[in-house]
Amino acid sequence: MTTLPNDLLACLREHDQEHVLLDWDALDSDARAALVYQLAAIDFVQLEALRKHVSPPGALPERFRPISVTPAAFTDDEKARGSDALRNGKVAALLVAGGQGSRLGMLQPKGLFPAAPLSGMSLYQLHAEKVFALSCRYQRPIPFLVMTSPATDLPTRAFFAEKEHFNLVPDQVKFFQQGTMPALCPRTGRLLMEAPGKLFLSPNGHGGTLTALAESGLLREFVARGVEHVFYFQVDNPLVKVCDPGFIGRHLAARSEASSKVIAKELPEEKVGVLVEVNGRCSIIEYTLLPKHLAAERDASGELRFRAGSPAIHLFSVSFLERVTRTVAGALPYRAALKSVAHYDPHTRTMVPAPPAHESNAVKFERFIFDALPHAERWLAVETRRDEEFAPIKNATGPDSPETSAVAQLVLYAQWLARAGVETNGNLVEISPLFALNGDELAAKAPLLPAITGPTILN
Asked: Residue 405: enclosing H or E segment and its boundaries?
């Protein structure tokens, strides 16, 4: 029978966290061992310091200005540079997939969501097929890194295995987990419980991607394999141009350490972070923190002055990631977020329902990817068109929903077909990444297409 180490018990008493042991006698040996493992991983001194001194998410800098953005059109030289980097194995694709689709009504990895408008292809398959198509184009297996969380890791691995990794070479796909942090009661600072003998742990934010990369050993593996750049994107955006050669080429030409794509904000209240310049460095301000009068401010042309919205598409040099994750000074800070959660109360041995969102009952700690950007000595903000690269699936209905994303995908495919001179006769057409990654590839295949007489999936 697992026993509780004396030093761990003393630590719990010292930090007023003994409530986590109230169900100890009712736990079996495996549950006790799991709880000891969870508790032993906690730095209680750090946790108390975080609760007392941690910054709010994305604290507003004192002075900032609109960021300089390079245009969306890439030159032939930029495209050639990027293509050479992919052909020579210099670039890896990193998919951030730690979230569950709770807002979509599914308690499973969001990557399993059927995102393609006609076929119902999952987000995971859409992204994996892009990597496969690029690997075929450049005759080089592009490393495909999939960052999961404890909640999504097993079902994600099982799904990829069931689908035979979507034809990717097994060694090409690397799974790794982001870290977790315990949640606390904002009033008492005590650890929250998910169930008897089980702490309430939550993923440590998308910024945890970088520390997880280092801790997993993948950064060291990159160096050994000659990978020099990492293309970062999030699972919920089916339109992202994975490892866009022009974007890579511009990043290389500028010797940038951190390059970010931006979309033009359409409305002041749009829920995307905004890239800004702070003391000559690139940074991101979350939409919740940008003052309303600044969010609505317009320039002489009538466009929003702070319009460089972030679709969470980045390109990092491996040397930059090594520097950011190697030193304490460069490590990403934790930020506190008040949340509304259901949790288990060991005193009453009952579940506490989540209060309304405005009555938050938990403090979660997260790292944010945008906290890495100011560490870059050389950076780029690169414009991309919303209709070509940003149609996220975040909400069940309304903006950024499956419906709006499906419409955006179908409109883009219709534009490709129209430019290629293909008549659709008003029919809906879905284009698989295995058939064409962009309008140019589609145009090259247009003469071979049969007449489109109904809803069609080109695969």
From this structure: helix 402-419
Number of DSSP helices (H) and strands (E) in the chain, helices first: 14, 21
CB 98, CB 155: distance < 8 Å: no
**Rounded distance between C-alpha atoms, residue 203 and residue 366, angstroms:** 7
3-state secondary structure of 438: coil
Q: Do 150 and 162 meet the contact criterion of CB atoms below 8 Å apart?
A: no
User: What does the H/E/C string look like for 77-88?
Assistant: HHHHHHHHHHHC
Chain centre to alpha carbon of residue 333: 17
**H or E element in which residue 125 lies:** helix 123-138
**Residue 194: its H or E element:** strand 193-195
Q: How far apart are the first and last CA of the chain?
A: 56
Does residue 198 sit in helix, strand or coil? strand
Name the residue type at position 331. Answer: A
CA–CA separation, 116 vs 122, rounded Å? 7
Torsion sign, CA atoms 179, 148, 311, 221: positive
Asked whether the beta carbons of 315 and 231 are under 8 A apart, the reply is yes
- Residue 125 burial (CB count, 10 A): 23
The whole-angstrom separation of Cα 374 and Cα 42 is 29
One digit per residue, the tens of pLDDT, for the chain of length 459 reads 568 899 999 999 999 999 999 999 999 999 999 999 999 999 999 888 888 765 555 567 888 999 999 998 999 999 999 999 999 999 999 999 988 777 787 779 999 999 999 999 999 999 999 999 999 999 999 999 999 998 899 999 999 999 999 999 989 999 999 988 999 998 899 999 999 999 999 888 888 888 899 889 999 999 999 999 999 999 999 999 999 999 999 999 999 999 999 999 989 999 999 999 999 999 999 888 899 999 999 999 999 999 999 999 999 999 999 999 886 445 678 888 888 889 999 999 999 998 887 788 998 888 888 889 999 999 999 999 999 999 999 999 999 999 999 999 999 999 999 999 999 999 999 999 999 999 999 999 999 898 999 999 999
The Cα 310–Cα 264 span in angstroms is: 9
Measured at the CA of 457, the angle between CA 451 and CA 459, to 5 degrees, comes to: 100
DSSP code per residue over 28-91: -HHHHHHHHHHHHT--HHHHHHHHHHPBPTTPPPSS-EEPP-B-SPPPHHHHHHHHHHHHTT-E
